[in-house]
Amino acid sequence: MTMITPEQDIAESEELLSSLKSAISDLRREVENLKKQARSGEEINETAATKVIGKVTSIVGNCAKVETYLNECRNRQAGIARGGYALDLDKARVEIGCKLDRLRRCGGTRPVSE
């Protein structure tokens, strides 16, 4: 059985996000070319412009999804729950230990009813 660790999951998500950022840079160049054509008065191919806008919309949406997923992976790795809080298990262990010590001390002074 293959086990995917949080580190692998994060690394893959970061790689995907990096790839998407590169694609955004390429699209930005395409948009800049379209702007230059429009400013110079050249005729703009409507189909090409529509494709570029569609790609931009799609890639920006994918980036948002990957960033959200990456943040969730990092939060899971850090032990932070979906609500945005984390459990400090070491602190909880110490507090429980102290309470158990108090119960043991109290229990030794008089019998506990059943």
Structural class: mainly alpha
Write down the overall mean pLDDT.
78
The total of helices stands at: 3
The main pleated sheet reads as: none
Low-confidence stretches: none
**General form:** rod-shaped
The total strand number stands at 0
Task: Please state roughly what percent of the residues sit in beta strands, choosing from under 5%, 5-15%, 15-25%, 25-35%, 35-45% or over 45%.
Answer: under 5%
User: What's the helix-strand series?
Assistant: HHH
* Radius of gyration, taken over Cα atoms and rounded to an integer in Å: 28 Å
Tell me roughly what share of residues is in helical segments: over 70%
Describe this structure in words.
There is one protein chain. By secondary structure, the chain is an all-alpha fold. The chain is 76% helix and 0% strand. It is built from 3 helices and no strands. α1 (6-40) packs antiparallel against α2 (46-78). The radius of gyration is 28 Å and the shape is rod-shaped. It starts with 5 loop residues before the first helix and ends in a 7-residue tail after the last helix.
